[in-house]
Amino acid sequence: MKYVKKIICGILTVVVSALLSCQVEGDTSLPELTTVGANHITTNSATIDVNITYDGMPTYTERGVCYSTSQNPTITDNKTPVTGTGIGDFSVNLSDLKPNTTYYVRAYAINTKSPAYGAQISFKTLSGVWAQKTDFSGGEREHAVGFSIGNKGYIGTGYVREYGIYSKDFWEYDPVANSWTQKTDFAGNARSGAVGFSIGNKGYIGTGSSASSDSNYKDFWEYNPVLNIWTRKTDFPGAARNCAVGFSIGNKGYIGTGSPLVYKDFWEYDPVSNDWTKKEDFPGGFRWMAVGFSIGNKGYIGTGSYGSLSSYEDFWEYDPIANNWTQKTNFAGGYIWNAVGFSIGNNGYVGVGANRQDFWEYDPVLNKWTQKADFANYGGWGTVGFSINNKGYIGYLDDNDFWEFEP
User: Fold this and answer.
1) 199: helix, strand or coil
2) In whole angstroms, how far apart are CA 123 and each of 43, 101, 327, 370?
3) 8 A C-beta contact, residue 256 and residue 234
4) What is the mean pLDDT of residues 37-63?
5) Is residue 361 a contact partner of residue 344, using CB atoms and an 8 Å limit?
6) Spatial distance between the Cα atoms of 254 and 279, rounded to a whole number of angstroms
């Protein structure tokens, strides 16, 4: 009997051991994780957020993200592992990416069973290249005016906070030589917050302010770059103001909005007859420190501020033939004021406002905004911009920096 019991116990031991062995082997399971999203996207980098809700059995030994320019990437493609264990959130920084390229990404975690993958997400790196050029030679300043005539750029006037003085000096930038040349001083009073634009082969500066809120201007001047002289033209007929917007469409110039009382009127200047005509008011409401530029035969005004009460993100198109305004897609960067705006080819560009680095492209055909490469500095009171041919230029005159942008 004892012999039989020993046999039975032996058999049970073998069976139990086998069952336990099968249970351990069968309990292996994959980790569970989510590829949450991509952020902090630049021309060559991005941050991927991941969440692990189950660490698998046995616990994973490696985690990270894999990525490719083709869909459904695996760990045999590009992968970036990060240290750490357990469940919860983590982030992965991807670098050395190509500009203007769509990438597909999946989070992964590996245990002895096999790799587990999160759902695929995709993102596109930004396009646009900033290159630092020769510093602006005129010294630091705020609320200067800038525009281009032909193949040259011009910056002048402004407020020098360090010394508490207003400027009237005027400088020409040659992008081929990457050099600055001082030209004849602006012939009006020294000022800041003026409007500047070009019509044909002449430049124009008008409005602005100096010294106090009582010293706003409405005079208007023409600059001849060949003769390097200034000629006074018919004064701007609206109220004297500063921080208005101005641009040209074809052979006409336009000025509107501005401060100190905050305006929304809009005026057209004809250099042939040297007179002004009032046009339909800007329908976006009273504002100053907005952006204004033209693309082809249309003008655009948007963003800006209404004193300390509010700032804006709306964006409007002006048709000079019909003399009417059409609201377009809001500026995708959100509320912004004191930004820079200009056009290159068939697109517009807006960004680098007060304490901002982001920079955006507007496509008027698609009525769509696309983020471009961030500007190298945070914008402030000293940013001014213009375009020459197929490139844009921004002066960060708080530090005299001057940058070239290639879309």
Assistant:
1) strand
2) 11, 8, 29, 13
3) no
4) 96
5) no
6) 9
